[in-house]
Amino acid sequence: MANGLFVPLSTGFLLAHLVEHALTSRILLISWWTTGSPAGRQVMQQVVTGATSGIGRAYAEELAKRGLDIVLISRSEDKLRSVAKEIESRYKRQTHVIQTDFTEGHSIYSAIAKQLEGLEIGILVNNVGMNYIGVLANFLDVPDPDQRITQVINCNTLSVTQMSRLVLPGMLEREKGLIINISSEAASQPQPMLSVYSATKIFVTYFSRCLHAEYSSKGITVQCVVPFVVSTNMTHNVPVNPMVKSAASFAREALNTVGYTSYTSGCLTHALQHFALSIFFPGWLRLSSFCVQRMATFAQSIEPHLKERMAETKNKQD
Ligand SMILES: NC(=O)c1ccc[n+]([C@@H]2O[C@H](COP(=O)([O-])OP(=O)(O)OC[C@H]3O[C@@H](n4cnc5c(N)ncnc54)[C@H](OP(=O)(O)O)[C@@H]3O)[C@@H](O)[C@H]2O)c1
């Protein structure tokens, strides 16, 4: 009897879980919308933070490809100029660059506001983000935690809130606007050995969902994007494979979900990985001391390899 019930019950459970995910739009609606966001069609400038490499650069290029002008914000003046030049020549769009360092805290936002003055911002992509350290590590096992903690919090959370504060009033006046906030799968469950990063990303998720609830009736869409692994400098340019997306294809698929969902993994393969992990690697297991110990052993074993890759990435950037 018990065995007879097990199969239908577990199938029912799986189906219910799938439907729940589909209803909350974690299973994505690819390619239904490819011509740019409705908000983007009639406005002049789109702002992308952390736009000189990885996912941010890919968003900037994809928006330009769809016919939009871009304001690129990042920390390195040289990289900004070179990415802007490339976008202008490749996509024939206008660009504007703002150099800033988001780790510096609240003092940078008045200068950013001044440089955005007079621009009608249609889309803001709050992409900039950094990890606590390039490898998995316990909270205190990071060089210079005193500075590093503040830098990660400033870069990952203050940037999202302050940049949203700067562009929202204009969007509300025009009753039109899109804010895309890049969170992370590391926020879907508490992630030991990425504690500060994981905590800042759940901040981004909750902030985005609250903002969407507050302003969607006023014409503003706030979309929270929750990627799994994308091949970028942050992930030491891990090779692209069926589970790991390239930044370009991730941004393309993720942008195609705008208008359909305010909370998304960004692409189908990441949504499926999230689904599988939530079933086979639930929060209680992830947080168990057994798992944390295994993770620490694994982190130690891959550390030399990761450090090598970090050095390679740094050399390439230099
Ligand atoms: N890659 C993934 O697998 C993954 C997964 C989930 C979520 N995410 C999130 O996606 C976002 C982008 O990540 P990514 O992998 O594309 O990272 P990335 O390749 O390291 O690129 C980060 C971008 O932000 C800029 N930046 C970094 N720190 C900055 C600062 N303090 N001030 C101003 N600009 C700064 C970088 O400029 P420089 O070119 O000067 O370094 C670069 O343009 C992050 O929020 C990350 O948390 C990434």
Automatic annotation (TrEMBL):
Its main location: endoplasmic reticulum. One of its GO terms (biological process) is steroid biosynthetic process. Pfam families: adh_short. It is found in: Endoplasmic reticulum. GO terms for molecular function: oxidoreductase activity. InterPro entries: NAD(P)-bd_dom_sf, Sc_DH/Rdtase_CS, SDR_fam, VLCFA-Steroid_DH. This is Hydroxysteroid (20-beta) dehydrogenase 2. PROSITE patterns: ADH_SHORT. It comes from Cyprinus carpio carpio. Keywords: Lipid biosynthesis, Lipid metabolism, NADP, Oxidoreductase, Signal, Steroid biosynthesis. It comes from the Eukaryota. Belongs to the short-chain dehydrogenases/reductases (SDR) family. GO terms for cellular component: endoplasmic reticulum. Residues 1-24 form the signal peptide.
